[in-house]
Amino acid sequence: MDYNLTLNEETKPMQVEIDNDSALRATIDGSEYQVDYSVVSDHQLYLKVDGKAVNAFVSDTGDGKFIVINGISYQVQDADLLAQLPKKKGGNSLLPTEITPQTPSVVVSVLVKTGDSVEKGQGIVVLSAMKMETTLNAPFSGKVTAVNAAEGDKVSPGDILVDIEKTESDDE
């Protein structure tokens, strides 16, 4: 099957061949990958990509998926479907706008304090889930207006850990 996927606003062609119920071969930009997978929960996949094991945490954005792998966030969408949707003004509203964990976690450290200015992509909070640390990053530049979590807190998806007021000049 052929796809055109938008990955963090960059479109890439992808071919997928299903081998069986738990394996597939994917070709992305000419590079081929063997992927074995199993569903851990509604929001977590266990993957072996060319023999290397990784956990992927997935949430639905309405017309795509938001995926976190090894602490790095990816927005993945069907580029062909996106081309058919009406354009929205004001940037991409599908990018996350809140600092919230994808899975139940424990706060390892909070890297900012109220009043701090942050840049898009800057580390905000470090979490630990299933013996794996993940850093949540600022979705846009702005000023920290509240820190709602502390080291050692147990947090869940939907809990807003840090509030950031978006900077007017940040049009992304």
Please bin the fraction of helical residues.
under 10%
By DSSP (H or I, 4+ residues per run), the number of helices equals 1
| Biggest sheet strand line-up | 1-2-3-4-5-6-7-8
Largest sheet: 8 strands, antiparallel, barrel
The secondary structure category is: mainly beta
Q: Any guess at the CATH architecture of the largest domain?
A: 2-Layer Sandwich
CATH class of the largest domain: Alpha Beta
Low-confidence stretches: 89-95
Characteristics of this structure?
172 residues; mainly beta; Glycoprotein, Type 4 Pilin; OB fold (Dihydrolipoamide Acetyltransferase, E2P); eight-stranded antiparallel beta barrel; four-stranded antiparallel β-sheet; 1 helix; 15 strands; 3% helix; globular
